[in-house]
Amino acid sequence: MIENSKPSRLRVVVVGxxxxxxxxxxxxxxVGHQVVGLDVDVQRVKRLVLGESYVEDIPDARLAPxxxxxxxxxxxxxxxxxxxxxxxxTVPTPLRDGVPDLSHVEDAARMLGRHLGRGATVILESTTYxxxxxxxxxxxxxxxxGLTAGIDFHLGYSPERIDPGNPNWRLENTPKIISGIDxxxxxxxxxFYASVVETVVPVSSCxxxxxxxxxxxxxxxxxxxxxxxxxxxxxxxxxxxWAAIDAASTKPFGFMRFTPGPGVGGHxxxxxxxxxxxxxxxxxxxxxxxxxxxxxxxxxxxxxxVRRLVDGLNARKKSLNGSRxxxxxxxxxxxxxxxxxTPTARIAELLTSxxxxxxxxxxxxxxxxxxxxxxxxxxxxxxxxPERLAAADAVVLLADHDTxxxxxxxxxxxxxxxxRHRLVGTHVDSL
Length: 431
Description:
16 strands, alpha/beta, 431 residues, 6-stranded parallel β-sheet
């Protein structure tokens, strides 16, 4: 690890102002850089200009002084990228029919190339397969600029490690992996990140940095799948999986706690490991069996939740068809409004197709602030009241936000399927 030193004030462009790009842009402005936050979403930029944040980790109070001082400027105008010293790309990298879609990365590279000057530094942060920076991103920058990476400009990769809603590990105190295509590029990348984070961790190549991100997320994906499959089998064997996990967690070595849930969400787990699997298959012609198995297990957890709900209602002499189901939690994780790839969407879809009346409550997810939650638009949004809890044939806890009143839920609901192990009672089934 390299200790940090603060560089001079830089003109910085952050392409993409989502869960990764906005915190980075704000932090860079706070430490003294002149920052342009570029995004293609007009409504998103309008909100930022007005000082309204749609990312919970960035409160409005952090935006206001930076906007007033003119050190942070949200924009949709690509001409604002002119004369940048450092540009960081944090755009989405979704899957399309199981294949990596790098169109946003490609568009960003072509756009930045038109404004790229000698001596500037370009850094890719978007999660992708090993080889993207050097084989795709760099050549596109060169084609658009007429310059050569490593000679005329610096190029590197630094995987994002943003954990939405985590109050302890934030951008500035989470160690930052950095890399460059050559020694001078690595030094330039290090120099920038040293000004915004406390600890920089260099690796020897961009491919290593790209693989590091996929390794981190594949590790979590596989272990969550293990916990999910164990939960299914433990229930069928009439064993309390949560008690077993608690007991195993007392071991001070050789065990790391992972817990089951209704499925995985966000960008990291449903998508990122598949980038590695795709790369292995395409380059080596072999299957990454751990990832494929984890995908199969985690992708089908929403189906298992619905199956458990059917069993629970049947035990109470009720049918899912015609039942009113209250889903608590639209976000994919606790205490955040991040609804990207949330399993709640699939659960609601299944319930509706089977004749149930699905309603959902989530104080963190605001429809117009989260465009990627558009797939939840068909779910009726309601408030959690004693009357609504009592009227529901089943209440399903999917995201265990601290803002939920768990005493009221336990008191007023007649049947609860708890997918997060937060509730107790004779009328509570745990996943």
